[in-house]
Design brief:
Protein name: BolA-like protein 2
Subcellular location: Cytoplasm; Nucleus
Helix content: 25-40%
Family: Belongs to the BolA/IbaG family.
Radius of gyration: 13 Å
Structural class: alpha+beta
Pfam families: BolA (PF01722)
Subunit structure: Interacts with GLRX3; forms a heterotrimeric complex composed by two BOLA2 molecules and one GLRX3 molecule; linked by [2Fe-2S] clusters.
Number of strands: 3
Length: 86
């Protein structure tokens, strides 16, 4: 099973039809996998945070059992545009 940042980014972008995905490998010493992700997708429109996170978790269902720590931020395109203007 591949657990690279690039693999996760591609899968999230494809499966969630995301317009922007950032994946940071935060693994400190390579003894356990750790990632931080930012996903911007229109699929998040009208959904509360928990439902958004469930969509991401479902997308990465094969990978998550092998990841020690996983932090995610999920935004709609509108929220992403506002955040970038700050």
């Amino acid at each position: 099973m591949e657990l690279s940042a690039e693999h996760l980014r591609e899968k999230l972008q494809r499966d969630l039809q995301a317009e922007h995905v950032e994946v940071e490998d935060t693994t400190p010493n390579r003894c356990a996998s750790s990632f931080r992700v930012l996903v911007v997708s229109a699929k998040f429109e009208g959904k509360p945070l928990l439902q958004r996170h469930r969509l991401v978790n479902a997308c990465l269902a094969e990978e998550l059992p092998h990841i020690h720590a996983f932090e995610q931020k999920t935004l709609t395109p509108e929220q992403w545009a506002r955040e970038r203007q700050k």
